[in-house]
Here is the input.
Amino acid sequence: MKMLAKLAVGTALGLALLSGAASAQTVKIGLVAKSLGNGFFEAANKGAQEAAKELGGVEVIYTGPTSTTAEGQIEVINALIAQRVDAIAISANDPDAVVPALKRAAQRGIKVISWDSAVGKDGRIVHLNPSSNELIGNMCLKLAASHLPDGKGDFAILSATSTSTNQNTWIAEMKKLLPKYPGLNLVTTVYGDDLADKSYREAQGLLKSHPNVKVIVAPTTVGVLAASQVVKDAGKIGQVYVTGLGLPSEMAGAVHSGATKEFAIWNPIDLGYSATQIAYRLVKKETEGKPGSEINAGRMGKIKIGDNGEAAMADPFVYDKKNVDEFAKIF
Amino acid sequence: MTALVVDTPPPRRIPDRLSTPFRRLLGSWEVLLLAVTIAIFIANSLASPHFLDPWNLSDATYNFTEKAMIAFAMTLLIISGEIDLSVAAIIALASTAMGAAAQAGFGTPALVSVGLGVGLLCGAFNGLLVARVGLPSIVVTIGTMSLFRGIAQIVLGDQAYGGYPASFAWFGQGYMSDFPWWPALPVFEVITFEMVAFVCVALVFGILLHQTAFGRRVYAIGNNVFAAQFSGIPVERTKFVLFLLTGLMSGFAAVCLTSRLGSTRHTIAAGWELEVVTMAVLGGVSILGGSGTIPGVVLAAIVMGLVTFGLGLLNVPGIVMSIFIGLLLILVIALPIVFHRIRSRAAA
Here is the structure.
């Protein structure tokens, strides 16, 4: 029975040696993921480490719970508070549940920001969105135009459900920005309900009923994948193109088959990079993160803080034949 | 007449115990756990300079207090030879019900009653199926695990209940110094409500199991259910009460956890059933029933809390932490069996 005690002491001593390296002068930033073992957050960590190297004297502690629960994140936050990190940058599993824990962090002088998935206003200084609705809408139009000769021609939208808040906002933004793209003509919008089979049927119907449509824009990962499958199956590669928002791992095939030339989605590496930059500037008191101010984010340029402390990082990142394979490994 | 001479033999002394109480204590599971607790405590304070901070230790207790309160009730249930795997799902359902009540504008006392009430109802449902209908508890509670959480999932979808009254936050976020009538000593500023609740619940269950006839009945049922039945022990009723208690404590844990989070999602407390059972087993409760103590489970809860917090301080990823807890559990279960084998082989 003494073996157990010996083992415990042995393990602990081993861990003690591991932890001895941290020094007091470095800026410690806790990067909290929704859960560990998710490619998106691993990629964000890659960006955060890049920012840490660039800034110098920064240690990024990448951590998170095993499952996407608020309780798990609170345990992680408590451990970070206990280590007296200088900043916490979190993608929250629950916007409200983590607020009390983060408020406690703020009371003890820790700068808290959220990124990707927001925390309630009381729990953080700044929230970093990967993009903004306007930028996403604009990017969808830009992609549609770039698939058409001279940027002129008919296109249709394949959306998720007719009640999906995100998609509806983006489509509204697209309609608002349409005059900026003369010659680009929106024929119709159909809804695939974010179901693979329904999206496939809707895209099929679209090609039959609107033979003039040269580009299908799908601002949903399910839709864009289904539509590129339809184009491929119908043998219309080169005549009809598909673009929109998709995941590189799912879209790599479509890019290589030629059903799509380019598509967009936020870049998790840039997101982790920018979150780390913002957290660092807050710790160094270069900014207070007040609405209306601008924060220097290294290679991502200046990021403007909008209402409610929300900031939009950049245009969605465009993926094509050159970079899709590299990102397909990540998410 | 010759006098009948009864030759009375001198009374033979039968020892109460085979070994002295002190030696028995030394060899007991609880003392081993205590040694492990102290070892982990020392190791943690050596490993991280931040470990021995009263505020940090106070935060760390949240890692185990809520789970331990269920583990105490679970201890009695496992000793009686049953198990309840639906406890985390009961938390989800009770929390959802409290969320709905909060939306309807009910105050803190009503919310607490709703939480405890739903816990009791769920416990009664499990108890009825196991004790009355006679179904195996592992099957029943795997079923109700999906059932209870399923209801919460249907009600909530991907939404969350929030907007709990401010006074409700006190259960999961309050410190004893928040009490107006509590002596204003600095110590009470770091002692949370949940810590006090943890100690009280441990005392209640400790007394119930070790000092009452009810507790003896629980052991008797776990050791030999037929012998217990023939001795006139109301087996069905006792088991039903144990399920009720487990449900009630899950309801209470739901109150604390919901208050701490201030919001309810259907994933709340996901996976806690296994951590609760782990605590009981690590505390020396035989998974086959019949033996185990509350002090053992108290220590096991503290061990698990300290290990997870200590590893968290060193930024060990959660996945590695799970592996560590899993190994600890296997080790703890396997060691006594291995030792027993070696000893019996040596004796033969």
Remarks:
- The radius of gyration of chain B is 23 Å.
- Chain B touches chain A through 52 residues (CB under 8 Å).
- The mean pLDDT of chain B is 88.
